[in-house]
Design brief:
The chain has 27 helices and 24 strands. It is α+β, with helices and mostly antiparallel strands. The protein is globular.
């Protein structure tokens, strides 16, 4: 049986490694492929969405002392939708004891989708160098290659592809075999896709497996012309395609999140990093591929994502991007999560010394230091209060985009924000990253959306760009990504509401899973324990004062009521500020002046070097942007659209609304990004 057969429910492939023993093939009943079903109507209905929804339902049923390792693909991946090619890894984190989830690209997801919606691996095998091989029929066997032991992820891929032919290989590296609790996993190659937060690499290696291999051919692309057109219409996605996440360097500097680095310095650093990177790559079928890669002599290509390059570069005192790339390549060889490794290297006295840092990475991978650090994911420093709250209070961890709400830092207009969150009211200053107003509700909404997108397998970065730029609305996005949401949430009034309610239900399941495992509630820093931050978030999420779920929240799982827990509370009664977009700055008494205009990334390349713009001031920001468009017509469509600013505009570390009054001498930084990456 495979995915092409006429079944109404997603297929689950269950593999019990305990049944193998010393054999190459399992005992009877150790490998089972069957449609998903459940006696609990809620689990049956939500699990039928496939992907992470099915994986969570499976984990909730498993014994808490030894939950399985689960690899899943969502319905958008199964259907071959453009920019939906991700497989999701689920395991109990050896680092935190909580749920670890990570997504990987390459052809792994599309190959697994040919076989099943979820692969559930339980038990252990004591066969050094054992790889679990899954074929197109859903049959499983072991291949034992002693050369896999201690090998780098790239060597493992090459050995298995040479032995088995075309296939997708999910594998840890030597750090996982050494017991490092923040070891990562790699999939595919040229370049490989890595996921590591929470130590999913160690979780797989602890099962005795050197790799999981899928030999089934990938499902084909499915053309969706309207979706492709929407993706190509998003300026933010075009900017992400050109910058490959490295454009975030200047964006973080504008926010004040790169300590001691001004935006001009960030522009230069970003340009050097982009020049040092090599070729472009992206998810299967995506018309706006957003990955950049680099090559180190004697190694395969590696991805050059901002989060890893920043952690191993600027945060460790290395200004030269090639030095950070070298450390990242070393992390990839050893199978170490780059951000977690960097956090453990900081403060040891080797900052700015790439040779010593290389040696430290090897010691980390051998487990000789860094293991006594706090058992928690290291949050990314940020002045963005929504991002800070999301990292600390969210149930699903600190992986972008899960915890970096794009509506705030990316510059979505108040009008668009209100349309997306309707009927939830938006207080004054909610769109300002450093103002606490409304951040609890924005984090809650954002988590609901991203949980549902992850369940579909659709790229959350692409979705953020589409919504930020108004290339689609929530109903359109739901139709493309998770059409089964209406069946999963039968009382939803439309596809958008169903999408968000699915995400809220999955968040509730993660919290239920943590209760099932006996995990303590996360401790949130005291500076976030304010009414508009943690208090507001808990109200919307249905959490009590200690962070536990209220009876109403538990009873509302799988229904639209889960989106209405804020009604009748202080969240509902706020100064809305909805008319603020229509307000005009007091521009009486104008006289000629100048404004300094700068931008990084693809927008900066269209505008050219930072320059002084002469015009009559004071003036509303929207007028200033229109004047910039007049003198830089090549960038006009990336500056103002339908009378609304396209980029976020920062002044002295604060975002500005369209009506903000701009004065002579102001320095404005224009930022066109999608958060995370």
């Amino acid at each position: 049986m495979n995915i092409d057969d006429d079944v109404t429910q997603p297929l689950v492939l269950r593999v019990d490694l305990d049944a193998w023993g010393a054999r190459d093939r399992p005992a009877e009943g150790a490998v089972q492929l069957a449609p998903w079903s459940h006696v609990d109507p809620l689990k049956a209905r939500i699990g039928a969405l496939a992907g992470p929804a099915l994986a969570l339902a499976t984990l909730l049923d498993a014994a808490p002392d030894d939950p399985p390792f689960v690899l899943s693909v969502g319905p958008a991946v199964q259907r071959g939708v453009p920019t939906a090619a991700r497989a999701t890894v689920h395991a109990r984190s050896p680092l935190t004891g909580r749920l670890a989830e990570g997504q990987v690209g390459t052809d792994l997801g599309r190959r697994l989708a040919r076989v099943a919606a979820a692969l559930v691996v339980s038990g252990r095998i004591d066969r050094p160098g054992a790889a679990l091989v899954i074929d197109a029929r859903g049959d499983a066997r072991l291949v034992v290659l002693p050369a896999l032991v201690g090998a780098s992820p790239e060597t493992r891929r090459a050995l298995l592809e040479s032995h088995l032919g075309p296939c997708a290989v999910l594998r840890p590296g030597p750090a996982a075999e050494a017991g490092v609790p923040f070891a990562n996993l790699a999939a595919g190659g040229d370049p490989a896709s890595f996921t590591g937060r929470g130590g999913v690499g160690r979780a797989l290696a602890a099962r005795g497996l050197a790799a999981i291999v899928v030999t089934a051919p990938p499902i084909p692309d499915r053309p969706v012309p309207e979706l492709t057109a929407a993706l190509l219409a998003s300026p933010r996605l075009e900017a992400r395609m050109e910058g490959g996440t490295l454009e975030l360097t200047s964006a973080f500097a504008a926010r004040g999140d790169l300590e001691g680095m001004d935006v001009d310095h960030a522009h230069r650093l970003e340009a050097r990093a982009r020049d040092a990177a090599g070729s472009r790559h992206g998810c299967k079928g995506c018309p706006t591929p957003c990955g950049w890669s680099f090559e180190e002599p004697g190694r395969e290509k590696s991805g050059a994502r901002f989060s890893a390059v920043r952690a191993l570069g600027v945060d460790l005192g290395l200004e030269e991007p090639t030095a950070a790339f070298g450390l990242l390549a070393r992390c990839n060889d050893l199978g170490l999560d780059a951000r977690e490794a960097a956090a453990r290297l900081a403060g040891r006295g080797n900052e700015g010394n790439p040779t010593a840092l290389q040696d430290d990475l090897l010691a980390l991978a051998r487990g000789t230091f860094g293991m006594d650090a706090p058992v928690a994911e290291t949050p990314r420093p940020t002045r963005d209060l929504a991002a800070a709250l999301g990292q600390q209070a969210g149930a699903r961890g600190a992986e972008p985009l899960r915890s970096f709400p794009f509506l705030v830092g990316d510059g979505a207009s108040r009008r668009r924000m209100q349309r997306l969150l309707d009927p939830l009211p938006i207080p004054v200053n909610a769109e300002r990253a450093t103002d606490p107003a409304g951040k609890g509700r924005l984090v809650w909404w954002h988590e609901n959306l991203v949980a549902a997108l992850d369940a579909s397998g659709f790229c959350a970065f692409s979705a953020a760009g589409l919504l930020d730029d108004g290339a689609t609305d929530l109903n359109g996005l739901a139709t493309w990504t998770l059409p089964g949401a209406r069946e999963a949430i039968p009382d939803a009034r439309d596809a958008a509401e169903a999408l968000l309610a699915v995400g809220a239900t999955l968040d509730g399941w993660v919290r239920e899973l943590h209760e099932h495992w006996g995990c303590a509630e996360r401790v949130v820093p005291s500076e976030l324990e304010t009414p508009s931050l943690l208090g507001e978030y808990r109200t919307c999420r249905g959490l009590d004062a200690s962070g536990g779920r209220t009876p109403r929240a538990r009873a509302s799982l799988g229904s639209r009521e889960l989106l209405d827990l804020w009604r009748g509370t202080d969240v509902e009664h706020v100064e809305d500020g909805a008319q603020r977009d229509a307000a005009s700055a007091d521009v009486g008494g104008r006289e000629s002046g100048f404004v300094h205009i700068g931008a990084g990334g693809a927008l900066g390349r269209r505008l050219g070097p930072a320059f002084d713009l002469e015009l009559d001031l004071p003036a509303p920001l929207i007028e200033v942007l229109a004047a910039v468009a007049d003198v830089r017509p090549d960038a006009a469509t990336w500056l103002v659209a339908a009378g609304t600013p396209v980029p976020a505009v920062w002044r002295r570390g604060q975002t500005l609304p369209p009506e903000a009054e701009i004065h002579t001498g102001d320095h404005l930084e224009l930022v066109l990004v999608v958060s995370g990456g």
